[in-house]
Specification:
single chain; 23 helices
Length: 549
Amino acid sequence: MTRSDQRGNDAARPEAPGTDPVRAEAEAALGLPPASSPAGAGPAADAVVTAEAVAAAGTAVGGSAGTGPAVGGSAVENASLDGARGGVLGRGFRALSIGIVSVILLIAFEATAVGTAMPVAARELDGVSLYAFAFSAYFTTSLFGMVLAGQWADRDGPLRPITTGIGAFAVGLLLSGTAGSMWMFILGRAVQGLGGGLVIVALYVVVSRAYPRALQPSILAAFAASWVVPSVVGPLIAGTVTEQLGWRWVFVGIPVLVLLPLGLALPQIRRRAAGPADGRRGGAFDRRRIRFALGISLGAALLQYAAQDLRWLSLVPAVAGAALLVPAVLVLLPPGTWRAARGLPSVILLRGIAAGSFIAAESFVPLMLVTQRGLSPTLAGLSLAVGGSTWALGSFVQSRPRTEPHRQRLMVIGMVLVVAAIAAAPSVLIDSVPVWTVAVAWAFGCFGMGIVTSSTSVLLLQLSAPEEAGANSAGLQIADGLSNVLLLAAGGAAFAAMGGGAVGAGHAVAATATSAHPGAFAAVFLPMAGVAVVGVWVASRVRAGAGSS
């Protein structure tokens, strides 16, 4: 029985005589056994009770019936129930929620703004030929940072990875913003990626440790919503700053803004989520996993380089990259991921399929509208702007308590919407199809992505013991980031092979001609739709069942 199944069973229990109805309702929402229940602390309590509080109570996290005092009657549970009633912006969680969401907001703004400033920076630094590496450097080092953060957070708690990651992110911004050459700019982007990888995984561990299960969907929905405003106004603000003050201010202006959210979040993280989940600090890092993390980063970089230089000689870095990447992925992702085993492996695989196929397709939408339908770059970008709002709406829908019993069905529906959006986008290559078709299709696709991505985060925390939250969160982010790198590289190679011209890696596409062949776009969108179709099947396997494999 999975934790989500247990939660459903708890909610269906009849009220015990003499039980406070309000308390019983909150206990059911949290997935905890009632105080009157003979059961001891069970898996459903894992995400509610911090390791320190459990150790103080003499109760083992994740213990079975009869191993210690019932968590349902502890002071820790009472505090969790009170906090759940107040919501993520209740008095107990307000400072932490505002702080960590603000950190995500600033990272999101930087991610959406950098694409606007990058062409100007590359031209002024005489580094247009190295343009793609400014993106790939970020993604490849972030993969290493994710693995390191997972081990670090499980070993010492999430506080140190977060502070180190934000520090590295700020240093990378300053290096890029003050760079006198393109290689120094790329170095700054690599340091940024390391910091970003550390932060994103550690924040998931904070959610697992600091928030009751009933509030985790809401705070993860807030994470998704924090990308909405930057996705709409980020390019506009970055463009204005670049034109009026210069591209360097897009990078050097952000580190100062990080101070306020840090001041709000760090004291709360220290109080609620500091220390290892099992109470034993200072265990050794798994050096084998660290080596594989380096392998996955280097392998991804070599494959991306090979995909952008379509010559026979490029087979050398491609083979070397695959030799480094494949064994590393098999070790760093949970067993059964690549065969879509039910439960956690399918959750992680689905995240990679959804993120990689959608982002790879989205990267080519503006280029297609500009070169094939004659839209200006601004209008082409605005055609995707509404997607930020519908993405947040999808995340909000999955966070409602009433949707919890139907989460797997919602995820299947979400992937169907993703497939439909990717498949419908190239229809505008036919002149008689209205251009606004893309905007409508992408709005539905983003709604589906909001459901799927937030739900994978929720299920990962539900299926992970506290001491495993860091490693499993790292696996989720590795699947996300690696699929972006590989499917963008594959899409770029297919596009170039079909005569589409050169494209930049990452989330930006650089058009080098206005006469790209329409078939080149079909060679990108249709295979990505096929990848997303596989995701529909994987979404049907995210719940573990008896005897499943």
